[in-house]
Specification:
CATH architecture of the largest domain: 7 Propeller
Number of strands: 24
Structural class: mainly beta
Number of domains: 2
Oligomer: single chain
CATH topology of the largest domain: Methylamine Dehydrogenase, Chain H
Order of helices and strands: EEEEEEEEEEEEEEEEEEEEEEEE
Radius of gyration: 19 Å
Strand order of the largest sheet: 1-2-3-4
CATH class of the largest domain: Mainly Beta
Helix content: under 10%
Largest sheet: 4 strands, antiparallel
Strand content: over 45%
Shape: globular
Length: 301
């Protein structure tokens, strides 16, 4: 398999990258205060810089594409406490469709809700709170906040699949839940109940001994359980599972990388977990039939 280097043209460290829904474009976030949008190109065509988006005053930590049913929208968050929703207009021109600056310090993580729930963005901040920005039918935005979600700082947020466990996709039974990880080394699950966000579970805190850098809720495709992965500065990646409503979450260490685990990301089918750990190490993991997790490949940079 031939590899392809993509020239990003950032002037400083790149913290995040995200493919759009179709896998054709890549957005990148950098300490140089910009977001770049790159056309990936094909086997014989080079990648091409499509846009450089400037609007942050400091490092940009994360980027996230909205579902294309809402148009060409990209969100970014940064050290400046701002969350910017960028909109692509005609001829590839990007503009700031909305700027949220209701956080008092760095916004470390953003995640768009499953598209079935509408256009809604969760934001986790060093000020300890999680905010939810939801676009109204008239184009304005409503916001809801989980105060003191992780009082010393929120590092990561991830949405649960919108379909209830065991329900038929499209049955109309939608779920609004989030998982968050914090500097307090705790993983928490939140549920939207009776018009407000409430803590549903605080997962056993002894599993991690340092800052939880990332959390990722796996897609549920006809499975009878919910699965969350969490990655910590302590080097451990923990897999949390829960059966039907009323069951408890159970966590087990998938692997100790003995170096900070930065990011965890599920494949679209939810059966492969990608882990970024240490300085230059990405590995892919799969659950074996006996319930143990095994490494399926290592990606060399």
């Amino acid at each position: 398999m031939s590899s392809k280097n993509i020239e990003l043209d950032h002037k400083d460290m790149v913290h995040d990258s995200a493919f759009d829904y179709y896998g054709k474009r890549l957005a990148t976030a950098s300490s140089d205060s910009t977001v770049k949008v790159i056309n990936i190109g094909g086997a014989s065509t080079p990648s091409q810089l499509l846009a450089t988006l400037s609007g942050h005053y400091g490092p940009v930590w994360r980027v996230a594409w909205a579902h294309p049913k809402f148009g060409s929208l990209l969100a970014s968050c940064g050290y400046d406490g701002r969350v910017i929703v960028w909109k692509e207009g005609a001829a590839g021109q990007w503009s700031q469709a909305h700027v949220f600056d209701n956080h008092k310090s760095s916004v470390n993580s953003i995640a768009w809700a499953p598209y079935d729930l509408g256009l809604s963005l969760a934001c986790g901040s060093s000020d300890g709170s999680i905010s939810m920005m939801t676009m109204r039918p008239d184009g304005g935005w409503d916001s809801a906040t989980i105060e003191r979600a992780h009082p010393v700082g929120v590092m990561a947020v991830s949405w649960a699949p919108a379909n209830a466990l065991g329900s038929i996709v499209g049955s109309g039974e939608l779920v609004q839940k989030l998982v968050s990880g914090g500097i307090d080394s705790v993983v928490r699950v939140w549920a939207f109940v009776s018009g407000s966000w409430k803590l549903e579970y605080a997962l056993p805190s002894e599993m991690h001994t340092n800052c939880v850098r990332d959390v990722s809720w796996a897609p549920v495709l006809g499975l009878a359980k919910s699965t969350i992965a969490s990655a910590s500065e302590d080097g451990k990646v923990v897999i949390w599972t829960k059966g039907k409503e009323g069951d408890k979450w159970e966590g087990k260490v998938m692997h100790d990388f003995e170096a900070p685990a930065w990011r965890v990301s599920w494949s679209l089918t939810g059966n492969i977990l990608s882990v970024a750990a240490g300085s230059d190490n990405i590995t892919l993991w799969k659950e074996a039939s006996d319930g143990q997790w095994e490494k399926v490949t290592k990606i060399e940079s």
